[in-house]
Design brief:
Layout (H helix, E strand, L loop, with lengths): L2 H36 L3 H23 L10 H26 L4 H24 L13
Helix pairs in contact: 1-2, 1-4, 2-3, 3-4
């Protein structure tokens, strides 16, 4: 099989699994969003949902999507960095869409979720779960 075709096939499988994991994590996120919406707190519901969804996403992605044998020690730290960026962008996008542009909360949440899902896949694929951990250099041996 051609190397390019194998890469595309692996990328497709990885993306499919990532979207499956994302669907589960997003469902958790949306449930908390709707809870917040019912309490007239859509921003808090979205942010809390994003945090819980991120925890679930890390575990499921590590287990089923990006299964590299090496370099697992720093994956949680890298994931936290990406999750903080993701949640910060989620909070910013929701604030901009809800408060500045007065977009309906459901549309704001859908736009934010879709945009960040695409960004997250590439960051996790090429950084969070990809790189081997750095080992300390040994001198004089």
């Amino acid at each position: 099989m051609n190397t390019c075709i194998r890469y595309q096939s692996a990328l497709f499988r990885s993306l499919t699994r990532y979207l499956g994991v994302g669907t589960v994590a997003t469902l958790v996120h949306q449930l908390l969003f709707f809870l917040g919406l019912s309490l007239d707190q859509p921003w808090w519901g979205s942010v809390c949902g994003a945090c819980l969804g991120a925890l679930l996403s890390f575990w499921l992605n590590r287990r089923y999507c990006f299964t590299h044998r090496d370099g697992k020690a720093l994956q949680p730290l890298r994931f936290v960095c990406v999750a903080l960026l993701h949640n910060g962008l989620n909070a910013l996008a929701m604030w901009l869409l809800l408060d500045c542009l007065a977009i309906h909360p459901l549309l704001a949440q859908a736009l934010t979720t879709a945009s960040l899902a695409v960004l997250g896949f590439f960051i996790h694929r090429h950084w969070t779960y990809h790189h081997a951990d750095l080992a300390p250099a040994t001198f004089g041996r």
